[in-house]
Amino acid sequence: MSSSSTTTTTTRLLMLKASDGVTFEVEEAVATKLGAINNMVEEEGSEDLICLPNVNGKFLGMVLEWCKKHANNNTNSDKGNDEVNKWWDKEFVMDLDQNTLYHLLMAADYLSGTELVDLLTEKVASMIRGKKVEEIRETFKIKSDFLPGQEEEIRKKNSWAFE
Amino acid sequence: MANLFPYLPEELVEIIISRLPADSLVRFKCVNKAWYSYICARINDPLFVAKNLHYAKKKPSESLLLTRASASLLVTRNISASALSHIHAKSLLTSVLIDDDDDGDNNDHIIRCVTEDLSVPLRWSQWLVAYHCDGIICLLKDVYGTEIVLCNPILREYKRLPESNNNAKSFGKFRFAPVAMGFGYDSVASDYKFVRVSFGQVKAEVYSLSTECWRQVKMRKNLILDSTVSDQFYNCLYFQGACYWTMLDPSLGKMIILCFDMCEEVFHIVPFPKVAYYSSLVVWNDSVALFLSSQEAWNSKTTCLEMWVMDDYFDAAKGTAYSPLTKRLVLGPLVDFPLPLRFWKSSDELLLEDGRDEKLLAYNLRTQKLRKVEVDGEINFPYCSYVKSLVSVNGIRKISTYYSRRSKRRRTTQLPK
Question: Coiled-coil annotation: which residues (chain A) (predicted)?
Fold first, then answer.
């Protein structure tokens, strides 16, 4: 996008190719927010086309969307940046279904997007924390395989001996 | 080991699980066999326990530990040995989560909280003083520290500390309460320690959870301290590897901050910058700060509170070295003499105790707005922060220093002036 024309240095563009052949043209500064791509750029230098056989286009696109937002927000050196990022992160993970969340998380992990992994693992954790045992079973479609009496025993162990 | 989320690699599962609150984890042992064995293994893994604690501390919301009695019971505020015995047996140790998203910008005058009564192995009538560090609550039966119980209510673990020889001997016919007691973490040795400074001939002793025994600690020979004059009698502020108390040093004729370094096991003294009628220690922006109000303030209806900050820590080589406190803030004038308790939420919001009715107030430094914090029932000390953890009080599961900070305290080599 040409709107950020105030920067005098010409930003280099990288081509990222996903497992399903979809390609993305991204500014280097954006793509190198991902540790894996940063490493490749540093090691291979001149290479402009980077193949990512472990990520498909849909999720690579989402990861890059997140990188772009954070890169853009960070260029304006406002104090409110953290707030903006936080708000935007919240929106980003709000409506993800379980399946998308897992795939996105694996993509972020593969690309070493540490901050994004933090965000997504926190999102999964927030789906679990504070829940009742029955709710966990329901959310993750788990069946209890305890023998009769076993669960009761574990519950008992979780309370004080003298209670 | 079975994977809890078949789609996700093991490392990611561990990150997710370590971000769960300790009480959720303990509860989730009941989900199925795979969860049971997974969680049991993690609770016994010191690195996981440290990670879990790290995330719990990083959370933006903060819990406050206090005692709560049902409204019908009278709780006396005056923390003297005799008054304490009046406190009714039905009080509970409660964790209060102050849940407030609006940043104090809207017009609400009340902050609501979520209270959760913690289950501790002693009834209220059986303990008088409480300290906290990393999910371990330290309960003392009396002001002499004769019976000390460490417990982690989440793990349902407790441990009674053995009596120290020194403590038993020094009692004799007349008992003197210790001048200072506290509980904290030594990040160098990965150890939790209880410290007690006795009255009169100043001696200090430390109990270490990893060695399970008491040990004498050297203090300056001529040091005589008196904490009974302090408003924070038996209050101890633990912060990043050190315990802090306010008390009188009769030889200086001055109020001082006494500091005990949990790692080096040495004491430091910082004199108050001025005479104060009331004082209290808090943590502000990752530094220890002292709130003072002057004598004159007491006579008028309003008061101003000054906040003095300890910017630098001490030169460990010189026992008496200190850097003077610097004045950072003046709050007020505030009506009816509210007492500062602690900061919460990134140092913008100061919790205060209302001088009239002992209710909780929150003062926002940015918006200068004073709001009520609504907690059911009569509340009382210790007002320290509380975090749910999987840190065990039994056995020595060494926690790796990898995650346990940052808390390597800043040290300056600055010489005393």
Answer: none
Give the domain ranges of chain B.
10-53, 60-385
Which member of B21, B31, B32 has the closest CB to residue A129?
B21
CA distance A106 to chain B (A): 7
- Residues 6+ positions from B392 with CB-CB distance below 8 Å: B49, B152, B155, B157
Q: Which of residues 131-150 of A touch B (CB under 8 A)?
A: 131-133, 136-137, 140, 142-146
List of domains in chain A: 13-142 (3.30.710.10)
ipTM: 0.85
Closest-approach residue (CA) in chain A for B17 = A125
Tell whether A151 lies on the interface with B, counting CB pairs under 8 A: yes
Residue-level pLDDT, tens digit, chain B, 417 residues: 456 777 788 899 999 999 999 999 999 999 999 999 999 999 999 999 999 999 999 887 778 888 877 543 333 333 333 333 333 334 567 788 776 555 545 557 888 888 888 888 777 667 778 899 999 999 988 777 778 999 999 998 989 999 887 665 555 555 677 888 999 999 999 999 999 987 766 678 999 999 999 998 887 766 677 776 666 667 889 998 999 999 888 777 888 898 899 998 988 888 898 888 788 899 998 889 999 986 565 566 777 889 999 876 554 444 445 677 888 888 877 777 788 888 886 678 898 888 777 788 888 888 888 888 888 777 777 788 899 999 999 865 554 443 444 334 333 333 333
Residue B121, judged by CB atoms within 10 A of its CB (0-12, 13-18, 19+), counts as: buried
| Chain A residues in contact with B122 (beta carbon < 8 A) | none
> From CA B108, how far away is CA B106, in angstroms rounded?
6
Q: Is B118 on the interface with A (CB under 8 A)?
A: no
Q: How far apart are CA B156 and CA B167, in angstroms?
A: 28
CA distance B318 to chain A (A): 40
Report the alpha-carbon distance of residue B169 to residue B34 in Å, rounded: 52
Nearest to B181 by CA among B199, B169, B163, B168: B199
Q: How far is B21 from chain A (nearest CA, A)?
A: 7
Which residues make Cβ contacts (< 8 Å) with residue B389, sequence separation at least 6? B22, B49, B52, B53, B56, B134, B135, B136, B152, B154
What is d(CA A148, CA B189) in angstroms, rounded to the nearest whole number? 44
Question: CA B78: distance to chain centroid?
Answer: 19
Contacts A158 to B, Cβ<8 Å: 26-27, 29, 156
Q: Residue A102 belongs to what H/E stretch?
A: helix A98-110
Range 155-214 of B in CB contact (< 8 A) with A: 156
**Edge-to-edge strand list for the sheet holding B180-186:** B180-186, B191-197, B204-208, B213-217
Is B31 near chain A, with CB under 8 Å?
A: yes
Cα separation of A13 and A28, whole Å? 6
Q: Pick the residue of A104, A106, A129 with the most B CBs within 10 A to test the interface with B by mutation.
A: A129
Interstrand relation of B180-186 and B157-160 (parallel, antiparallel or unpaired): unpaired
Contacts of A142 in chain B (CB under 8 A): 31-32, 35
